[in-house]
Design goal:
By secondary structure, the protein is α+β, with helices and mostly antiparallel strands. It contains four helices and twelve strands. The two termini are 34 Å apart.
Amino acid sequence: MIFKDRHIVATVKGADPRKLSELVKKIAAETDSDGLGGFGEASGSGTGWLGTGLPKGYDNVTDQVDVRGLDLLNADSNFGSARTLFDASKPSALQTSKEKEYARDGVETHDWAESDTDEQLMLFIPFQSTLKVHSLQITSLPSRDTDADAAEVPMRPKTIQLYTNPAHVLGFEEADDIEATQSVTLHPQDWDSSTGTVRVDLRYVKFQNVSSLVLFVVDGDGDGERVRIDRVRIVGEKGSKRELGKLEKIGDETGE
């Protein structure tokens, strides 16, 4: 069995040297090309899957995320963790059957995050350097099963609040008492129909020296009870490296 972020991503049954060799080569190729190494290590390459194009003059700086300090409150443990959101691979919901061949092998994977007790999520994103953040790309690919109960189908985010340079993840009540750096309302037409991705343009002047971000999903677009996020990408410019150990992760209980 091959594990990634504590999830089984592939299995090889029986003595099959050819398949094992192919699987090792595939994982090695993904690791070399992965902006986060596929296993939470930053390579500095800035490569990886993007849900939409980059604005002229700016780069994908998601490789600057300090994945060791990520935190995601009110996340359902049956789905992916905060690290899953920054995985450089294409979301499984967009992969072809051939692309899923090795990752699945009969084992269902959940490479996205869903909220747990309600529709809110609180994501803490520390960076390895100070950034100038131009925009975010958020991918959300809820099920399109028309026969499913609307309340059971996860929603896309609707209202998002962003906070710059907090030292740690914010509690939900704490966020309500702090003025957000920017609040964004997303509309159905904002999402790319082919990739399920929205580009969130930021007030650039307010995101010039960013060492960490908190992304607060306030509510979802619909009548459901949960919100789903598949990927998050950071777009902007890299700055100077910061001293690690300055940010603090607190609270291990869901909803703190």
